[in-house]
Every structure is written in structure tokens, then in C-alpha cells.
Design a protein that fits this description.
This protein has 355 residues and is of the alpha/beta class. The chain has 16 helices and 12 strands. Strands 5-2-1-6-7-8-11-12 form an 8-stranded mixed beta sheet, sandwiched between helices. Helix 8 packs across helix 15 and helix 14 runs antiparallel to helix 15. It starts with a strand and ends in a 21-residue tail after the last helix.
Length: 355
């Protein structure tokens, strides 16, 4: 028998994962999302379909659930495919329903995700000890085209994965490879977090193209077409800082271009995978999470860890400051600093044994 998956978060990643896992023999026991209106639209669609040259699949719509505790009850694997901002909330919601024989995987975790999630379970009254782990990135480039239809632009060939505690990483990866063959064990969850390259691409790409964003340009043009010239140069600076921080912590991180090549190989990323209505177009290309998630959950912890070990990430700091100014939000206060993660030393970030 195959595993039964509960997928928490029915957006781009959650719908793509449901189709991909089902295509490889996994059972989707529940699709969970707190957006009641969105669940109604998925229910009306009745079927779930992925389109594009990398994944063509169609299936009856899996059971749709609003309550997280109900969704995870009958699953053997729980995939949390929300934004990282919601990890604590999701952990609290499932704390009294999750079991020790279950695996809970954050897709992706962002730096410190597993640590935050395990703390959320504990503070929510969880007495079980499920295996908690995280991915560095989603295994796909995907976007919702309409309710019940997700376009899969590409499937990654390589995605780092680790468990907290780190001693159980091999167990986690081997148990999931049947469904997600691209998973590769990392040394620990800190290495996984440092290999989430989304913040170094999304944040400058959004902030330095705000004029285009606000004129609606991205409703018709893909986001990645605007990452050129001096914008690309700033992205390169942020990535240099990420690699430099990794080296200081003992992790030989791949620079962005090489990382991209290893992730996708020779696969052609298809950015047009079907027609998309005006309702979805711009949000699909430049979703709010490019700032609302990638700044506090991505750049803030990078800068904070850098300060802990005496590595200044000046370009990353400037991007956080600009995002705070543009958004009118103090991301330093809400983001995953080492203090908010409860880390007093680097070892605390690696995924300690025990709870």
C-alpha cells in the first residue's frame, strides 16, 4: 500500500504536489486550506488537473477540508505547503491531532522552519513526536491557471531535504523518494534553509521593478523576463552574500547559476503552460509572498545569522530596509531573527536531537 498524504495549503505548490504524488501512486487523503471561498471554487471544479509538458495528470478532486486537525487525522504524511509565515499557526492547529507515526514536511521550510514548527507543536499541547522535516524549495515551478487547474512549468531534479532532529534525515528522505525522487539528504536543516534561493531572487526582482508591477505590466509578461541588467546585478550581490555566509558556517553552497543548473538540469522551463484569466495573471507572476514571505522569512534570518557569526550582509540588509519602507512594515520585528528562533549559537539552528 502507498502512503496517504494530507496537503495543507491548496495553492500553486499544494495542487502541483497533489497531482505529482498521485501520478506516482500516493493517495491524497485531504487537501486543506483555510480560504473557504477558494475551497468552494475547487469543489465546484470537481476535478484536479495539472497541465504542461512536464506533468499532465487529471484526477477526481481530493477531499477538501478547512480544518487542519481533521485533514491530518488519517494521513501517514503531512505536507505543509503554506507560506512560511503560517508555520506556527498550522503547527498549533494540528498539535493535538498529529501522531508519532506521522511524517510532517514543510514545503519549503525557509531558514528555521522546522525549529519554529516543532516549537509550535509543543506549545500547542502536542504529546506525540512526529518526524518533522523540510525541503529547501518546492519541487516544481508551478502556477494556478484557474480553480482545479495548475500549470507545471518545470519539475526539479534536485531538492535538498533534512529532518529535525538531523539524525533522522536519511529515514525521512528514503521514505519519501518513491513519491519525490528529486529529494537529496542535506547535512541538517540549516543547510536546507541556506539553500532556499527564492529570497535573493524574488525580493530585489520585485522591489527594483515596482513601477512595472504597479502599472500591471506583469499581467502579460513573466516576472523572470524583468531580471536583467542592473536588477540581475543586485540579485548576484545578494547571492554572493548567501554563499559567503554559507562558507563561514561550513557549508559550500552553490552559486545561483550552478544551483539552478543542478536543480533543473537540461529541462526546459515552460513559462506559458496554458491560458490564464485576468483574475489570476499578475498574482501568478508576482504574488504578494515575494515580499510578505521572502523578506521576513528569508532575508531577515540570513542577515540575523550573519550578525551572529560576524558576517555582514550589506546588500541583503538594504533590501530588507527598502522592503520595510515600501510596505510600511517592520520586517525586522516580525521576521525570523535568531532571537525569535530561540538560537543562542549556530548549533541550535542545525536541528538538535530530541525535542
Amino acid at each position: 500500500m502507498g502512503d496517504r498524504f494530507a496537503i495543507v495549503g491548496a495553492g500553486n505548490g499544494g495542487l502541483a504536489l497533489a497531482c505529482y504524488i498521485a501520478s506516482r501512486g500516493g493517495e491524497i487523503a485531504a487537501l486543506c486550506d483555510r480560504r473557504r471561498e477558494w475551497l468552494s471554487e475547487l469543489k465546484a471544479a470537481n476535478r484536479l488537473r495539472s497541465v504542461g509538458p512536464h506533468l499532465e495528470w487529471e484526477m477526481p478532486m481530493p477531499p477538501l477540508v478547512e480544518d487542519v486537525a481533521e485533514a491530518v487525522r488519517d494521513a501517514s504524511v503531512v505536507l505543509v505547503v503554506t507560506t512560511a509565515n503560517a508555520h506556527e499557526e498550522v503547527a498549533s492547529a494540528m498539535a493535538r491531532a498529529v501522531r508519532s507515526d506521522q511524517r510532517v514536511v514543510l514545503c519549503p521550510g525557509y531558514l528555521g522552519g522546522s525549529l519554529v514548527f516543532r516549537r509550535g507543536l509543543r506549545e500547542g499541547g502536542c504529546r506525540a513526536e512526529p518526524l518533522v522535516g523540510e525541503l529547501a524549495l518546492l519541487p516544481f515551478a508551478a502556477r494556478v491557471l484557474e480553480p482545479g487547474v495548475v500549470g507545471v512549468r518545470a519539475v526539479k531534479r534536485w531538492v535538498l531535504c533534512a529532518a529535525a532532529p538531523r539524525e533522522r534525515t536519511g529515514e525521512l528522505v528514503e521514505g519519501l523518494r518513491r513519491y519525490l525522487p528529486m529529494l537529496d539528504p542535506a547535512r541538517d536543516v540549516l543547510e536546507v534553509g541556506l539553500n532556499n534561493v527564492n529570497p535573493v531572487v524574488h525580493v530585489p526582482g520585485t522591489l527594483l521593478n515596482l513601477g512595472l508591477l504597479e502599472t500591471g505590466w506583469f499581467a502579460k509578461v513573466d516576472f523572470y523576463e524583468a531580471l536583467v541588467g542592473r536588477v540581475a546585478g543586485v540579485i548576484g550581490k545578494l547571492d554572493e552574500e548567501r554563499v559567503r555566509l554559507g562558507a563561514a558556517l561550513g557549508y559550500p553552497l552553490l552559486p545561483l547559476e550552478e544551483f539552478d543548473r543542478k536543480s533543473y538540469g537540461e529541462a526546459r522551463r515552460v513559462y506559458s503552460v496554458g491560458s490564464v484569466s485576468e483574475r489570476w495573471a499578475e498574482a501568478a507572476n508576482v504574488p504578494p509572498r515575494y515580499l510578505e514571505e521572502d523578506v521576513p522569512m528569508g532575508l531577515v534570518p540570513l542577515v540575523s545569522v550573519g550578525r551572529m557569526v560576524g558576517v555582514q550582509l550589506r546588500a541583503s540588509e538594504l533590501m530588507v530596509e527598502l522592503a520595510c519602507l515600501v510596505q510600511g512594515t517592520d520586517y525586522w520585528a516580525s521576521g525570523r531573527t535568531v532571537e525569535r528562533l530561540g538560537a543562542r549559537r549556530v548549533e541550535d539552528l542545525r536541528g538538535e536531537a530530541g525535542r
